[in-house]
Amino acid sequence: MNLSLYGFGERGFGERGPEDEWIAVDCGMMIRQDLPDSPLQVPNLDTLTALGIRPRALIITHGHEDHIGAAAWLWPKWGCPIHATPLAAGLLRAKFIERGLATDAIRVIEPGEALECGPFTLRYLPLTHSIPESCALLLAAGEHRVLHTGDWKLDPEPLIGKPMSAATFRAIAPVDLVVGDSTNAPMPGHSRSEGEVARALEHTIARCEGRVVVSCFASNLARVLAIGHAAQRNGRRVSLMGRSMERMVAVARGLGYLDDFPPLVPVSDLGYLPPNEVLVIATGSQGEPRAALSRLARGRHHAMELGAGDSVIFSAKAIPGNELLIERLKSGLKRLGVTLLDEFSHPELHASGHPAQEELRTFYGWVKPRHLLPVHGEPRHQQAHRELAEPLGIQAPLIPLNGDLIRLDAEGLSLVSRHPQPPCIVSQNAVAPLPGLAGPNQGPRHGSLYLALSVTATGEGGWTRIGRLMLDASQASPIDEEAFTDWLDETLETLTGDTLAELRLALQPRLMGWFADHLRRLPEIHLQILAVEAPSASELG
């Protein structure tokens, strides 16, 4: 959930707050898997409002969701120009159009180009990451030169794009400050190349016999391309599952990044192919309940079923906090008899997009920073980054927290003030403080929604739905009934209670949360729950 602000003023910081000109770098979101229905969390702008900070431009380093995902929600408060490389700009335009926003403010800048914004001169410096067109930013203002690395790694074989140019970064040395990626700072050695992963995927898929599903992040186009080539070389047809995957591939193809990608088979045609000719690239590696892979694990995907002899490859690392959802997903796949290959049993099938220790040392040998501000990751990653930098003669006096206001001047880095950042959740098509996320009385209600479901106790403390769901939403906003039914079935499995009254008490607030996140206007909800006995095996026979 990245949002950095850079301000410059000849007089420094006055008693009433920062003065002069500001720019924003990146504007990302995160998914709150710990809240009902996994809503979006975006940066809190209260501090900027209180300090009188209004950026005159938004600068995007690359197209990952944690760097662009909040722009369509927060940019309307600023209305400033947005500068992004072609791929990130294309993804942003799609998001803005979905939200009904004009896209005129989105301006394309090519990697390697420079622009001026008030007192700032910025240059986009190409580097390698797990999405094309990732760039570091060299910011110059007054006598100071700051390198904001964004996310990066040293990949000699990136598959899409060129390896990083040592000459480019040596040419800007020395810099006063690096604001640098700490994600893999505790990891010794060097991260794996995308070229290595591509070869491992090809060899692994060659050994699979039934259907193969490979799950990865949609934005990792090099990985998507590698999977497509591996499928083609092993006589398999490729299909995409997941809206974000389809969108990413469409935007990338429009920019010429996937010209040699094999022809795609529509998902609806998969049932006509022999299992050993099927390969699906699917979203859902983090266990997202509504993603394609979770639907397959529950046997609820309309186009394909998985079973014994099929294989699922996780070509993505678990994001901290998602472990429970991922384990639930894997348990569902195992119950189907599917063979699982993941980062633990087959680490060669994934590569991180962030630099390990030898890459950091090499990079700092090029740019020769005087100071380091370690960002990204958790405090232990930042501390490891700091400990790596100091023996290299790089001063790293601070481990910043979200909301820290930090000064860089002739004396180096210093903490000016600390501003807590309470969570902000995207709810009911608007940004709201977290306490109002699932409140039944938040905002106006429009229309009525009637819901009746028959349930039976599972014997394991949970509940399961029996028979058809009765849903009348004719007086309310349109609803995706398939997504709602999938969510409801999964939620019922997790709820405990000995009586229908206890079940209602547990289910009602979750229902309110789901509808608040998925309907433009929240209706009055009428819930009826009926208890029935599950049919016995003899009755079914």
Structure description:
The protein has a 6-stranded mixed beta sheet. A 5-stranded mixed beta sheet has the order 1-4-7-8-9, with helices on one face. It starts with a strand and ends with a helix. Mean pLDDT is 87; it is low at 14-18, 435-445 and 534-541. The relative contact order is 0.11. The protein has 541 residues and is an alpha/beta fold.
Number of helices: 15
Strand runs, count: 28
The span between the termini is 53 Å
> Which strand-content bin applies to the residues?
15-25%
Strand order of the largest sheet: 10-11-12-13-14-20
Estimate percent helicity.
Answer: 25-40%
* Low-pLDDT stretches: 14-18, 435-445, 534-541
Give the overall shape. Answer: globular
Helix/strand/pairing category? alpha/beta
Estimate the mean pLDDT confidence. 87
The Cα radius of gyration reads: 25 Å
The main pleated sheet reads as: 6 strands, mixed
Pfam families: Lactamase_B, RMMBL, RNase_J_b_CASP
GO molecular function: hydrolase activity
Protein name: Ribonuclease J
Enzyme class: hydrolase
